[in-house]
Amino acid sequence: MTDGPGYDHTAPRYTLRLYVTGSTPRSTRAIENMRRICATHLDGRYDLEVIDIYQNPVAAVDQQIIAAPTLVKLLPLPLRRVVGDLSDTEKVLAGLEIQPHPLPPSA
């Protein structure tokens, strides 16, 4: 996807970490929502790491995660966080300072 038609080589690449708590319905929903948002709005310009804080509690302490699911945008700076199941796409995009993908023109 990174070399497809319309790919913008000057657009920033995003480094994202999603902290979840096991395979709960809320965690699963957050993962699905974030993958959909990335596929739709970041067009291959992202690295998404999912961290289960039950299996890696040190990672949560290092990033001062106090609620899960929590999405952390590490790059591009500034660092941003969004808490919740990420079902509100507009809130996630605004929180991460990502410009929404333009809608195709109507026929």
Automatic annotation (TrEMBL):
<dbReference type="GO" id="GO:0048511">
    <property type="term" value="P:rhythmic process"/>
</dbReference>
<dbReference type="Pfam" id="PF07689">
    <property type="entry name" value="KaiB"/>
</dbReference>
<dbReference type="InterPro" id="IPR039022">
    <property type="entry name" value="KaiB-like"/>
</dbReference>
<dbReference type="InterPro" id="IPR011649">
    <property type="entry name" value="KaiB_domain"/>
</dbReference>
<dbReference type="InterPro" id="IPR036249">
    <property type="entry name" value="Thioredoxin-like_sf"/>
</dbReference>
<feature type="domain" description="KaiB">
    <location>
        <begin position="17"/>
        <end position="98"/>
    </location>
</feature>
<protein>
    <recommendedName>
        <fullName>KaiB domain-containing protein</fullName>
    </recommendedName>
</protein>
